[in-house]
């Protein structure tokens, strides 16, 4: 009985003990099973959320790529259309005046079709002679000019490319003096400031070994800098006076007149300077003829120079006076300076040492000085 009771109690106690232990731990078997069932859906939901974000990011990336590709295709088509229009416009010659921005849009690759884009002048033309006439206005520091350039065609070309910097070209005319003399029609003309050149495109090609002439009228400022054709000043007896002189070395003749401004292009220069008669004018060569005008102006025509590069050319318009001396070979040497500097002898040393140096070099090299005079360059104030 007791054994049965103990077994019964044992049998009845065991499940009760398990239940009591489970209850003591605050959970039952059913609760543990429920927890395991509840945890799985939460984990699955978190993974689903992460997958949605990845899919969304991937979709946005694909959409962005499609949009960028479409824009690139549209721009490419538009660029080809613009290039085609430019080529058609150039071929048909529908426009006779082109500015630099329009020329920059040309899509030619051949050097012969756009020689103005090269850093050096094309070798198609070779200058022979310049006839340069300048009118100098010292009251407002401007000058106007006309240059006639005789040149030879070396290779057939439709383009005349020469240097011109800060010059306002009024008119250009090209004509031939060969078997069929006459004016050659100009298709278009324009400045290309990037390379400091002026371009004249003709309707027909220039023929090799033939001589042509180019006439250009222009105007510009007498600049307030030590380059090209510039102005300076000094004070004499309490009065400020002005002068205009040149500094063409190495590449600044193009600031004073249109020219082939590279050392290889040598030519002969004939210079004429017109100015108020209260000034005097100087150049490389002596004055050949001085012609006074009725309005108080004077025009000095200078002798032709030897064949030389553009940066050797020089002239001045000033109120300076001078002292002179002669070498044993008869070369005249003059020193020009302010009147008060000449009076007090400030230039005597420069004048005398120049004479000695010139005589020394003539004896040493056994070569006579090629010009009839040396000087005509103004000493600074």
TrEMBL record:
Keyword Membrane: yes
GO biological process assignments: peptide catabolic process; proteolysis
Regions that span the bilayer: 54-77
Gene3D superfamilies, per the entry: 3.30.2010.30, tricorn interacting facor f3 domain
Bias (Polar residues) ranges: 89-104
Keyword Transmembrane appears in the UniProt entry: yes
Alphabetic keyword roster: Membrane, Transmembrane, Transmembrane helix
Region annotation (Disordered) ranges: 86-109
InterPro entries assigned: Aminopeptidase_N-like_N (IPR045357), Aminopeptidase_N-like_N_sf (IPR042097), M1_APN-typ (IPR034016), Peptidase_M1 (IPR001930), Peptidase_M1_aminopeptidases (IPR050344)
GO molecular function terms listed in the Swiss-Prot or TrEMBL record: metalloaminopeptidase activity; peptide binding; zinc ion binding
Protein name per its UniProtKB record: Aminopeptidase N-like N-terminal domain-containing protein
Lineage: Eukaryota, Metazoa, Chordata, Craniata, Vertebrata
Record domain Aminopeptidase N-like N-terminal: where: 127-312
One CC-aspect GO term: extracellular space
Residue ranges that the Swiss-Prot or TrEMBL entry lists as coiled coil: none
């Amino acid at each position: 009985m007791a054994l049965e009771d103990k077994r019964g109690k044992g049998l009845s106690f065991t499940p009760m003990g398990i239940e009591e232990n489970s209850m003591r731990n605050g959970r039952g078997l059913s609760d543990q099973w429920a927890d395991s069932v509840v945890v799985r859906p939460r984990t699955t939901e978190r993974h689903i959320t992460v997958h949605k974000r990845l899919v969304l990011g991937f979709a946005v990336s694909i959409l962005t790529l499609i949009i960028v590709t479409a824009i690139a295709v549209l721009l490419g088509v538009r660029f080809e259309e613009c290039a085609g229009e430019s080529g058609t416009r150039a071929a048909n010659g529908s426009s006779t005046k082109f500015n630099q921005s329009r020329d920059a849009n040309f899509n030619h690759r051949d050097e012969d079709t756009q020689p103005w884009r090269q850093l050096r002048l094309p070798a198609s033309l070779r200058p022979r002679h310049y006839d340069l006439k300048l009118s100098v206005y010292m009251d407002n520091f401007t000058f106007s000019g006309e240059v006639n350039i005789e040149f030879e065609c070396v290779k057939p070309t439709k383009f005349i490319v020469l240097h011109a910097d800060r010059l306002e070209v009024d008119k250009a005319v090209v004509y031939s003096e060969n078997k069929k003399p006459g004016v050659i029609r100009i298709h278009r003309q324009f400045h290309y400031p990037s390379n400091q050149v002026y371009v004249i495109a003709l309707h027909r090609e220039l023929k090799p070994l033939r001589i042509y002439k180019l006439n250009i009228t222009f105007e510009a400022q007498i600049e307030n800098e030590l380059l090209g054709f510039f102005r300076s000043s000094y004070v004499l007896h309490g009065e400020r006076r002005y002068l205009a002189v040149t500094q063409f070395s190495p590449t600044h003749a193009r600031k004073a007149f249109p020219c082939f401004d590279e050392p290889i292009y040598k030519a002969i220069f004939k210079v004429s300077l017109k100015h108020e008669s209260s000034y005097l004018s100087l150049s490389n060569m002596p004055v050949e003829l001085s012609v006074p005008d009725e309005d108080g102006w004077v025009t000095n025509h200078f002798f032709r120079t030897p064949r030389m590069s553009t940066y050797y050319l020089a002239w001045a318009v000033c109120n300076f006076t001078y002292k002179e001396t002669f070498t044993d070979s008869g070369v005249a040497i003059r020193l020009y300076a302010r009147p008060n500097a000449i009076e007090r002898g400030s230039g005597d040393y420069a004048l005398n040492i120049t004479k000695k140096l010139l005589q020394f070099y003539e004896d040493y090299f056994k070569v006579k000085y090629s010009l009839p005079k040396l000087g005509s360059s103004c000493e600074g104030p």
